[in-house]
Fold:
Amino acid sequence: METASFNGLLKAILYILAFYYIFKFLARLFLPVLAKKVVEKASQQYQQQQENYHNQNTTQNQTTEKPKEKKIVGEYVDFEEIE
Structure:
């Protein structure tokens, strides 16, 4: 079994710091591009949903638009209140 050495500890800390700063640098470079693509894709999906909804409603309205028949209930009688 090997024992932990001071040099091994320093190497581990150095690797962790190097990984952190490299990751931070790459995130600053690529994260805006990825975020822009995600927003564009969400926008396209939203527009597609709106078009589908609009097309569906217009076709339903065209097929269901029939003149409604008014029911003839009877004559209108105006009542006056008597005190």
